[in-house]
Amino acid sequence: MAFAQVVGGTRYLFPDLRSLMARATPPRSGDVLAGVAAASAAERVAAQRALADLPLRHFLNEAVVPYEQDEVTRLFLDGHDATAFAPVAHLTVGGFRDWLLAEADSAALAALAPGLTPEMVAAVSKICRLQDLVSIAAKCRVVTRFRNTIGLPGTLSIRLQPNDPVDDPKGVAAQILDGLLLGAGDAVIGVNPATDNVDNLCRLLAMLDALRERFAIPTQSCVLAHVTTTMLAIERGAPVDLVFQSIGGTEATNASFGVSLSLLREAREAALALRRGTLGDNLMYFETGQGSALSAEAHHGCDQQTIEARTYAVARAFSPLLVNSVVGFIGPEYLFDGKQITRAGLEDHFCGKLLGLPMGVDVCYTNHAEADQDDMDALLTLLGVAGVTYVMGVPGADDVMLAYQSTSFHDGLYARAVLGKRPAPEFAAWLERMGIAERTPERLPAAMAGALA
Amino acid sequence: MTTPSLWRDLRRFTTARVGLGRVGHAQPTAAHLDFQEAHARARDAVWSALDMPALTAVLGGHVVAVRSQAEDRRAYLLRPDLGRRLHAEDRDALAAKAMPGCVALVVADGLCATGVQAQAPALAAALRERLAADGWVLAPPVVATQARVALGDEIGAALGAAAVVMMIGERPGLSALDSVGIYLTWAPRPGRTDAERNCISNIRPAGLGVQEAARKAAWLLAAARRLGATGVALKDESPNTPALPSS
User: Is the sign of the CA dihedral A298, A291, B77, A399 positive or negative?
Assistant: First the structure.
């Protein structure tokens, strides 16, 4: 279906929903690279006006990636919950924004999530300012459980990310101890392996599990290997808590990552059979990020933010414990500077939360992006106000394996302090018991020193 | 307050920024400024440019300078596709120097011109020595600016090269400001994918030494000649040499 809108005496035409969505997207380099961005500010606002007038029901009849070509489209259209959708079924995209801001409360948003498609959520985000993205997301409540409880009101969790350039267990352990002493690790202790093979994975998993058991830490561990490597580790009897995978918003993007919906189902079932969760069985961990589809030439002419929202429809089919966008990792050809990274991080959090996901954000940047620590402080603070479920914790903000900058353990302390947030309750109680809740000891506690022996 | 004993306890196991201590919830001033310095140097490295006269002087008199279609660093960062295409004038100049069957050595700025400037002369000399000893005919060295890895495909094709060896600046990290990578592509031509290349990365004084990198590259090229391909089909099974201080 084609759309038209007059702005300033010029009539702008948009041949289909995907071009309308793309032209309505606030500016970012990746959409220019893809050739789908609005050619002028006036064209962008024309697309936003036309999009605001579009009934939400339209998204059930026209998908940006054809139903016949893509299992992700089929997943969220076939699984659409019309009863949950009913309270907003009469609204346009613009009316939906107003409803989200004025009327929706936490209970209504939780009930609505299964009735929303990712493209509805992407559409409304495109006509939201940053403060709308913050205030609406702050009303969402998503709670998940494995060995602790993540996402309760008043909490902010941290993934402890102890990456080592050669997967040296002692290098990993030293970073874990540093993070625990600074209150990080309640979301997960999660290592990105430098080498993705099953022997290495089993070695790291055994080390993480032994460390967690030794100090009775109420958290979960994960080695962020490819899902097929994790499945091999499960077959070998390795202690797998969470199954990790990078995912995308089209079938072809997922194929470029070497995964499909059926493979993810198989992996989840294998991990569920281990019955390692003590409080709940949310055990999938997904990472995402705007631009991955274009990078894989699998974007079907769509803008990167719409595809990113579709990624969350993949995630929610697997009841994950954790989902995070790695927003600034992809580089300046997709998100050029701090302004674009900030907007994208808040959009991703907003879209994930509205779709019912336990949404975290890797607040991060690379050295070839126009961004610095000030940009990260601003995004972290905004996300904290928006109620982000978790952020990353990396020693001194410097990931020495992936060579990018994320948030530090100190940044987590800062965000919790200024926002009045606490860690997940089970983990907060553990920090109290260990005597490291209020201050960082000046020496490694004797009980912990043995972990590096 | 800093916590020197904690630093000592943890820092001996990792180069990560552990044991920094804390002031309130923040990093102490020294740790904060250490980070700012590392980031500043990395940023400057990304935006640095090759000193062409100096580089030409050390590489020898026959250097061919080429440009990509990215007109400046901003365009280079925003449009990777332009960094993979040769400037039209330079394609013609290269074609005039074609040496069918040669190995083309390309020195490219990539994301870190300063790293390339520092290491390419010794690396190129080591490569030329090894490859000449293996019987390869070497084209005059090419220096490419605003260049992505795949620019080597077009350079190699214009020269009629059997293979292209691209030395290119890697994206600077906070603790690795000067890394160069080597990308080897057999039968280079536009449209080659990254899966059709072999890469030797982290070449820098505190990483892989230039002699070791040149030895690996020569091994891979010899294997590529037998296999008729580089990339995923060609595994680096070159014998490991004992770890030595890098040369």
Answer: negative
Q: Per the structure, how many domains does chain B have?
A: 1
Query: Which residues from chain B sit within 8 angstroms of residue A444, using beta carbons?
Result: 5-6, 9-10
Q: Do A444 and A177 contact (CB within 8 A), yes or no? A: yes
Out of B3, B36, B111, closest to residue A368 by CB: B111
How many CB atoms neighbour CB A10 within 10 A? 11
CA separation (Å) from B49 to A371, A397, A420, B46? Answer: 20, 28, 47, 9
Restricting to A residues 251-270, those with a Cβ less than 8 Å away from any Cβ of B are none
Cα(A329)–Cα(A368) distance, integer angstroms: 10
> Out of 3.40.30.10, 3.40.1390.10, 3.30.390.30, 3.20.20.70, which CATH number does the structure's domain A144-449 have?
3.20.20.70
Give domain status of residue B85, yes or no: yes
Chain B residue with the nearest C-alpha to that of A399: B16
| Domain-embedded: residue B110 | yes
How much of chain A is helix, strand and coil, in % rounded to 5? 50, 15, 40
- What's the whole-model pTM score? 0.94
Q: Round to whole Å and give the CA distance between A384 and B135.
A: 62
Neighboring chain A residues of B18 at a CB cutoff of 8 Å: 174-175, 178, 395-396
Contacts of B45 in chain A (CB under 8 A): 367
Domain boundaries, chain A: 3-129, 144-449
Per-residue model confidence as pLDDT tens for chain A (453 residues): 899 999 999 999 999 999 999 999 999 999 999 999 999 999 999 999 999 999 999 999 999 999 999 999 999 999 999 999 999 999 999 999 999 999 999 999 999 999 999 999 999 999 999 999 999 999 999 999 999 999 999 999 999 999 998 899 999 999 999 999 999 999 999 999 988 889 999 999 999 999 999 999 999 999 999 999 999 999 999 999 999 999 999 999 999 999 999 999 999 999 999 999 999 999 999 999 999 999 888 999 999 999 999 999 999 999 999 999 999 999 999 999 999 999 999 999 999 999 999 999 999 999 999 999 999 999 999 999 999 999 999 999 999 999 999 999 999 999 999 999 999 999 999 999 998 877 777 777 777 777 776
Distance from CA of A390 to the nearest CA of B (A): 18
Nearest to A403 among B1, B9, B173 (CB): B173
Sign of CA dihedral A286, A276, A162, A178: positive
CB-based contacts of A313, cutoff 8 Å, min separation 6: A72, A75, A76, A117, A118, A249, A355
Nearest C-alpha in A relative to B35: A396
Asked whether residue B24 is assigned to any structural domain, the reply reads no
B77 contacts A397? CB cut-off 8 A: no
| Segments forming the whole domain that contains residue B107 | 52-227
Interface membership of B13 toward A (CB under 8 Å): yes
Which of A178, A403, A442 lies nearest to residue B10, judging by beta carbons? A178
- The CATH code belonging to domain A3-129 is 1.10.220.70
B10 touches A: beta carbon within 8 Å: yes
pLDDT above 70 for B242? no
> Residue A379's CB: how many other CB atoms inside 10 A?
29
